[in-house]
Design brief:
The protein is built from three helices and seven strands; from the N terminus they run H-H-E-E-H-E-E-E-E-E. By secondary structure, it is an alpha/beta fold.
Amino acid sequence: MKTVRLNGSPAEVEAAFYDALNRGDIDALMLLWAEDDEIVCIHPGGPRLHGHVAIQAAWEAILQRGGLQIRPSQLYEAHNLMSAVHTVIEGSTGVDPQGAHGQQPAHLVATNVYLKTPQGWRMVLHHVSVAPGPVPVPSPSSMPATSSLH
């Protein structure tokens, strides 16, 4: 596995992650994950995928028709010197999460966890779920941009 060094920040890895998704670039996407096989990915309505082989196979199936158009927004992050947890809104889906009664507003919520490794910051968890209702409109006082983990 090739090693890419990303030293800037977890935000740099997150930007590269969504860029790779939008371009449909599996190789670039997988280089952003920690080399440790204790990585986890959970897609909406899907099982918990554990390890590089399972995660790469799932992304290959998702991206077989090309890149996605995901623009993360409403970032909330908690971090310390060695780890960072980001939650973002990934956009609207227009699909009822229960699959009943036609089209209902829904949106995707993602949690991305990063660890600082000898190779730089790397993703160790990507978990996306469908949330009912339209994308929430944030108020300036309702969501701090960052906080520290203790």
